[in-house]
Amino acid sequence: MSSTFAPLFLATAIEAVVRAGDLQIAKFNTGVRVEKKGAIDLVTEVDLAVERMFRALIAERFPDHAILAEEFGGAAAVPAGPCWVFDPIDGTTNFAHGLPIFCASLALEIDGVAEVAAVYDPNRRELFTAERGAGARLNGQPLQVSSATQLVDALLVTGFPYDVHRRLDDIVGLFAAFVGRARAVRRLGSAAIDLCWVAAGRMDGFWESDLNPWDIAGGALIVEEAGGRVTTTDGSAFTSRGGQVLATNGHVHPAMLDVISKFRQSRPELRP
To answer: Which secondary-structure segment (H or E) carries 155?
Structure first.
């Protein structure tokens, strides 16, 4: 990443997610229009307004950069050079139901590798940021993952895909496998917040599949820069376009991989 533009990249990421958060809060619990993209996949007029704001900002500041965002698409394949990967509201279902767990999530990828990340939770006024090789921060203070070493001492978090109704046995089955091993398992409804809370040491591990790049690109870098480990759910190298993630404090990573592997072995239809 060019050292000349690096400060401007981070400043832009911060500006974008904070502006997004201001728009979210201004419309939260005001009866916004909600539409369906799928049976349980929602989009609101706020998602669209936030993404339009973001695209205008990047077009003005970096007109030659690619964009991939949830509502209006973009660079689905990894482009050469810079690409901003943006979720205008991560946790739209929560937002639409008046549940204050949602955020804006952003990563700047260079040749497919996240170099800058910013996630803003406007309800708690928490700004998570990271630069590759420079650490992760929460409201300017350094982040560090937790020190839990065993699953019985770990608080885990996960999410369910939008086709969960058709895949109850495997989704809930793996959830149950972790419930049987961990101290507790939570389900918040925002993958980006899940990842940031792993980075902050509030959670010890997070797993989920069937994700989009904008769900996880920013949060994954924040976990890594906070000292955590991020892979796919089978332990291979993570990419934002891989659709799945296992992010932990590093200590419980092998145990979580073992739980996932044994569950898949018990279900032949789930094996890769």
So the answer is: strand 155-158
CA distance 83 to 126: 24
Closest by Cα among 225, 221, 191, 222 to 206: 191
Q: Which residues contact 79 (CB under 8 A, 6 or more apart)?
A: 66
The C-alpha atoms of residue 109 and residue 74 are separated, in whole angstroms, by: 14
Q: Which residues contact 39 (CB under 8 A, 6 or more apart)?
A: 162, 165
The number of CA neighbours under 13 Å toward the Cβ of 121 is 21
Using one digit for the tens of pLDDT, what is the confidence trace for 22-80?
A: 999 999 988 777 776 656 455 678 889 999 999 999 999 999 999 999 877 676 667 78
Tell me how far apart the alpha carbons of residues 3 and 135 are, in angstroms, rounded to a whole number: 16
**Which of 79 and 3 is assigned the larger pLDDT?**
79
User: pTM for this structure?
Assistant: 0.93
Phi-psi category of residue 155: left, alpha or beta, with phi > 0 → left and psi -120 to 50 → alpha: beta
Hey, which residues does 68 pair with through a beta bridge?
74, 85
